[in-house]
Amino acid sequence: MKKTAAVVVIAVATAIACWIAIGPILTAHAIRTAVARNDEAELDQNIDFPAVRESLKSQVYGAIGDNGPPDQSGGIGNALKSIVSGAMDVMLTPHGVLLLLRHRTALGDAQPASDSAPPAQAAPDAQPRRKPIVHYRYASPNRFVVTVADADAPDLPATLVLHRYGLGWKLAEIELPSQEHPQAE
Fold first, then answer.
1. Range of the domain at 171
2. Is residue 119 part of a domain?
3. Which of 32, 91, 96, 128 is least enclosed by beta carbons within 10 angstroms?
4. 3-state SS, residue 108
5. H or E segment at 151?
6. How many domains does the chain have?
7. What are φ and ψ of residue 54, in 5° steps?
């Protein structure tokens, strides 16, 4: 009886450890699939949008030269931060992300939709889309990092950071490429 209980406990612990270990890869795949299927609900389940908005806002505020949120003191920096903050609040939603990925904005089409040819029927001389360079790694037991770089600029990757929430994972940060501080992998 004690051996059976020990085997069950070990099996359950192993199953949980495996689930946690492959969880971020499954989450990254689920996000990719949700984008391909235009599935807003699936994106919402796998992305912590408030955390991603704060992550990106802090990077933009740092680029402006002031890491704090907009305040009432005026100035061009505060005006820029207010505009960026409002734009991110509108665009960084499941619906907004899908629109952006389809080359539209959350406020409407960037270009009028063309009824002449669907995107799958590109011109024969058009270059095929290159696969990005993607690397996966654990930064800690609660933090998983996915770096994505264009083959033409491998030293300027965008970094997607997934955080563990209980037994599941969600995209919680996006670190934009920086010309000043390229990240080494």
1. 2-107+129-175
2. no
3. 128
4. strand
5. none
6. 1
7. -65, -40
Is 183 inside a domain boundary?
no
In a domain, 16, yes or no: yes
User: What digits encode the pLDDT tens for the residues 87-120?
Assistant: 888 888 888 888 776 654 444 444 544 444 444 4
Tokens describing residue 20: 């946690």
Q: Kindly report, residue by residue over 16-41, the tens digit of the pLDDT.
A: 888 888 999 999 999 888 888 889 99
Residues contacting 48, CB < 8 A, separation 6+:
163, 165, 170, 171, 172
156 Cβ contact list (under 8 Å, min separation 6): 149, 150, 177, 178, 179, 182
CA atoms lying within 13 Å on the CB side of residue 15: 6
In-domain check, residue 77: yes
The two structure tokens encoding residue 181: 């501080």
- DSSP 8-state symbol, 123: -
Beta carbons of 66 and 77 less than 8 angstroms apart: yes
Q: Which candidate, 43, 85, 93, 79, places its Cα nearest to that of 60? A: 85
